[in-house]
Amino acid sequence: MIRAHSRSPFPRRSFHYYNQILQSRTLSPDNYTFSFMVRSCTQISESPEIGFPIHGAIIKYGFESDPHVQSGLINMYSELGLLGSCLSIYSSSSLFEPDLVSQTAMVSACAKSGEVDIARRLFDKMLVRDPIAWTAMISGYAQSGRSRDALRLFRLMLSEHVKVNEGTLVSVLSACSHLGALDQGRWVHIYMERNNVRMTVTLGTALVDMYSKCGNMSKAVEVFSKMREKNVYTWSSLMNGLAMNGSGIECLEMFDLMKKKGVQPNDVTFVSVLRGCSVAGLVEEGVKHFESMSNFYGLEPRQEHYGCVVDLYGRAGCLEDALNFIQNMPVKPHAAAWGALLNACNIHGNLELSELASRKLVELEWKNDGAYVNLSNIYAESSEWVKVSNVRKLMKNAGVKKIPGCSVVEVNGEDHEFLAGHKTHPRYGEIEVMLGEISRRLRLSGYVPNTSPVSFDMEGEEEEDFMGRHREA
């Protein structure tokens, strides 16, 4: 009964039967009891402290060395975000030789907590790795923004003929989306078709998201149309892709179709809707959709929604409206809102508001190198080199260093990474020659470089060369 309820939507009912065991004169909890009780505690997210007395009982009854109980405890503390407790259990004196279950649980806990380097060290020490361990490691890389590592590990997984599951493919598609690696994402799609992998809602949504973020909207629409089952996230992914790729009107048409199909929009949907309105320049309609979130759908706007409305006003050139909206927000203005205003000011050339937005960003994100660089560039455009110098001093005093811009280009399924100012690419010499040739032809065609964003006090040709070779978006 405890096991049944631990796997049901009502895990709290497990405690009724657990208490009956404790009150019995003839029964005593065993390792199976505690394995399923820990599982129940893990599922009761609204009361995370409920698992602590169960852990105490496990020690009291002497089952702390049972591998299944231990792996359950590791999973429970991982869900609570208590990685230190996970590591303590894993490295306890009774676990000199942890089994596969405990090893996999620990790799998953570290990966989920963002400690992917610790997870990888544990993963590499495993003599046997099951698909769950591989998937946990790949997922950890993808969620930590280390998408290239995720794809490398996936290739290694395939080379070792490990069975790929749905979770693996979703994480790999997420990594492809992050990198814009269309060829590799397409390969995953072909792999699914050749191996008769069932197109679940989760996989289909991941494919739609991948094709959208890689710019292939026709393929995203094709996958979407062929899906037998779709949920609100599937619809939202397609709408977000349409907005992201400049098809704002089509995004709003898809929103109308979604509502006709009886699918209830959520907060993710409205991010896509507001982006669609922003791209299409539909300010009034966007504001109405924003207001409908709380008035009609009972959804509380999040920071991202406020940022979208600022972007909506800003793209349309309504900078004062954008500023008023920020100043009258019911929550404290956040970095995303000021960042949206800054971007709009840069587009429309409003230096006064750009300076205000940049200063607010520096105040909110004093460790964010981009905020300082934006402010420095604004002063550089006005040739205010003393203020540029002051910004650099602020950065130095705050211990902030400029992280070089990075671009990744996929060619024939292979990723090529370029860092601003670095010459580490193996074909850099050829690239340098080609850049020179492109620059020469542009000048012959009458092109004059825009050197205004340069944040250094340089002379003419020096500025042009810097902008031609080291421009960061």
UniProtKB/TrEMBL annotation:
<feature type="repeat" description="PPR">
    <location>
        <begin position="231"/>
        <end position="265"/>
    </location>
</feature>
<dbReference type="InterPro" id="IPR002885">
    <property type="entry name" value="PPR_rpt"/>
</dbReference>
<dbReference type="InterPro" id="IPR011990">
    <property type="entry name" value="TPR-like_helical_dom_sf"/>
</dbReference>
<dbReference type="InterPro" id="IPR046960">
    <property type="entry name" value="PPR_At4g14850-like_plant"/>
</dbReference>
<dbReference type="InterPro" id="IPR046848">
    <property type="entry name" value="E_motif"/>
</dbReference>
<dbReference type="Pfam" id="PF20431">
    <property type="entry name" value="E_motif"/>
</dbReference>
<feature type="region of interest" description="Disordered">
    <location>
        <begin position="453"/>
        <end position="473"/>
    </location>
</feature>
<dbReference type="GO" id="GO:0009451">
    <property type="term" value="P:RNA modification"/>
</dbReference>
<dbReference type="Pfam" id="PF13041">
    <property type="entry name" value="PPR_2"/>
</dbReference>
<feature type="repeat" description="PPR">
    <location>
        <begin position="99"/>
        <end position="129"/>
    </location>
</feature>
<feature type="repeat" description="PPR">
    <location>
        <begin position="130"/>
        <end position="164"/>
    </location>
</feature>
<protein>
    <recommendedName>
        <fullName>Pentatricopeptide repeat-containing protein</fullName>
    </recommendedName>
</protein>
<dbReference type="Pfam" id="PF01535">
    <property type="entry name" value="PPR"/>
</dbReference>
<dbReference type="GO" id="GO:0003723">
    <property type="term" value="F:RNA binding"/>
</dbReference>
<keyword id="KW-0677">Repeat</keyword>
